[in-house]
Amino acid sequence: MIAAILILLNVFPTVSGVLLLLGVALAPPSMFYLLGTNLLVGVGRIAAFNLVEGMANLVVLLLIAVAAAFSLGIAGFLAAGLIGWVLAAGAVLIALAPGPRGSLAFDQAAFAAGFRYAAKAFLITLLGYLVLRGNVFLLQAAAGPAEVGYYSIAAQIADVLVIFPSSVGVVLFPDLVRNATRRWRSMLGSLTVVTAIVGAACVVAALVAAPFVAALYGRAFAPAVPVLLVMLPGVVFVSATTIVSQFLGAVGLPRLLIAVWAAALVVLVTLNVILAPVLGAPGAAAGLSATYFILFVMVCALAWRHRNVAT
């Protein structure tokens, strides 16, 4: 229906109807796959999650490679991706298939409860994305594309460092939901370990940043190194915030968490309006690190208020 509306309204006049149909058709299986794999993690079936995730990505990659080998064009790439994600969604459905006493019937109460939770999660995720990427737009306006380029290289390296705490959070969250009595202690233990590991990784990154950037991007991008160094403290704080946020998610995502992220966005914009025009990319990175520190303090304060919540 969405593709038909786009075609009838001629929203994308330079894109063929076939490409629009294929592009829109990709959404249902990929969304089902994303939801299904998260359910596997939620019920503690980590081995099944790893198997499905690995096989699904491999199948999609192979199908796209076949499309490329036969020069099938954009439509062929989209069709290959569609077939791959339909197969992946089918694999998830099989993995989640209920037992003899289970049912695939629609549960209105569960959907309503999940929708309310998801609405809060969506707002928090949106604000988090704006905090993470808002610097790029502010820096572009304040200092120009060259500074944005240096900042982007540093941000890419920082994104790699944040993968580990994000992965820990995926596994930690369902455990915190299931074990309310030891929820706070489990979070603190994970927070300590993750912060120590990410901190050590940031120290290593700081030591090898200059030769790494020179080897990968060339000496012309050497100004990205000080940007990364200023950004690394923020990596530690946002990694720690990721773990504490799993605790808040387990206690129902307090609405005040939305206000906390909104406040962080205001802090980021304010700091960058002040720092970016004067210091360029390092100033934007400093604003981000300072914002993540303030965010970490606010999230910890909110988590402390809910430390005795059992459900």
Entry keywords:
single chain, 311 residues, mainly alpha, 0% strand, globular
Write the layout of secondary structure elements.
Layout (H helix, E strand, L loop, with lengths): L1 H7 L8 H9 L1 H16 L3 H24 L3 H24 L11 H36 L1 H34 L4 H35 L6 H27 L5 H24 L1 H25 L6
Helix pairs in contact: 1-2, 2-5, 3-4, 3-5, 4-5, 6-7, 6-10, 6-11, 7-8, 7-9, 7-11, 8-9, 9-11, 10-11
Walk me through the structure.
With 311 residues, the protein is mainly alpha-helical. It has two domains: 95 residues, no CATH class; 186 residues, no CATH class. It has eleven helices and no strands. α1 runs antiparallel to α2, α6 runs antiparallel to α7 and α6 packs parallel to α10. The longest helix is centred in the middle third of the chain and has 36 residues. The radius of gyration is 22 Å and the shape is globular. The relative contact order is 0.10. The mean pLDDT is 87.
Structural class: mainly alpha
Whole-number tally of structural domains? 2
Could you name the ranges where pLDDT drops below 50 across 5 or more consecutive residues?
none
The largest sheet is: none
Helix and strand element order: HHHHHHHHHHH
Quaternary structure state of the chains depicted: single chain
What is the helix tally? 11
Integer average pLDDT:
87
Radius of gyration: 22 Å
Q: What's the count of strands?
A: 0
Which percent range fits the helix content? over 70%
Shape: globular
First-to-last CA distance: 41 Å
- Beta content: under 5%
